[in-house]
Amino acid sequence: MIKNIKVSKKRKDFDNKEKNLNLILDSNSYKLAQDDINLLKRDEMRGVRMLLEITKPELVLEEQNIISTIIVFGGAKIVEESSVQIKIAEIKNLLEKFPASIELKNKFNKLKNLLSLSHYYESAKEFSKLASLNNQNEQCNSNVIVTGGGPGIMEAANRGAFEANCKSIGLNIELPNEQTPNSFITPGLCFKFNYFALRKIHFVMRSVAAVFFPGGFGTLDELFELLTLRQTGMKSEIPIILFGRNYWKNLINFEFLVEFGLISKDDLKIFEYADSAKEAWEIIQSNKFSKR
User: From CA 164, how far away is CA 145, in angstroms rounded?
Assistant: First the structure.
């Protein structure tokens, strides 16, 4: 009886040791710091996460021998004409059923305006194809198209390179309403960012030109970021092209800023306008910094 009690106690002690050892091995504290996801997500580790986010794309782009890039920015809502036409037809059908709906009328008017911008989708695709075919081969990956990786003009630019059988880059961002990468980015060259600031760095650091198609807040944010970098000399002299002269002149009165002395007249030389893919490409070709 006593012997059985001792055996039972030993077994219990052994089981407790095994259980405790398993708890030790499974605990976060025992994980290598690099494997501890909960640790990396802490606020105190933000600096580490930022370092990872700046380093990872850099390493991949170097391995892929990406020498230089051309940035293409533009609105996510500017899509192919056929896609807009389908949406317009759907709204028309609804308006026939609910002709007094103010909301449907507003949607219809917005879609008509977007339809008037849909030609920029084709222009972005054409420009991207033109730039990519002129600069990519087996030995060289210069002037690779880079976009924000999303829909609209970004999709068009990645698509142009895709249809030319050339590489292109997508710098996606994690947003509250998650943005899925468009399907035309080169696999292995699509990166997901958490920090806008670090994403901006990767847009600019290899760029030898930037083409801005019509867009909203995001496009304007990137435009003024790059204009400021050029104005202050923090970025080398690269072509900054505003695609769609009428759109940009109606949207921003740069001359007004000059008249009030808020920028100099020379600052207007930082950017140029273009109305066709060929014109934009000729501006880039004429710039010494883009010939790499």
Answer: 12
The 10s digit of each residue's pLDDT in 104-154 is 999 989 999 999 999 999 999 999 999 998 776 665 688 999 999 999 999
Candidates 194, 191, 262, 260; CA nearest to 224 is 262
Distance from C-alpha of 45 to C-alpha of 61, rounded to nearest angstrom:
25
- Amino acid present at 178: E
**Structural domains of the chain, with CATH:** 55-79+119-290 (3.40.50.450), 83-114 (no CATH)
Note whether 211 and 70 are within 8 A (CB): yes
Contact at 8 Å (CB) between 221 and 74?
A: no
CB contact at 8 A, 69 and 143: yes
Chain segment 247-290, per-residue pLDDT in tens: 999 999 999 999 999 999 999 999 999 999 999 999 999 985 45
What is the bridge-based pairing of β-strands 240-243 and 207-212?
parallel
- Report the distance separating Cα 73 and Cα 121, nearest Å: 11
CA angle 225, 215, 181 (to 5 degrees): 90
User: Angle at which helices 81-97 and 119-133 pack, to 10 degrees?
Assistant: 160
Q: Which of 126, 202, 204, 128 is nearest to 166 (CA)?
A: 128
Q: How many residues does the chain have?
A: 292
Question: Model confidence over 135-144: pLDDT tens digits?
Answer: 766 656 889 9
Closest CA to 142 of 285, 26, 286, 12: 285
User: CA 185, CA 183: separation in Å to the nearest integer?
Assistant: 6
Q: Rounded to the nearest 5°, which phi and psi values hold at 245?
A: -55, -50
Mean pLDDT of 195-218: 96
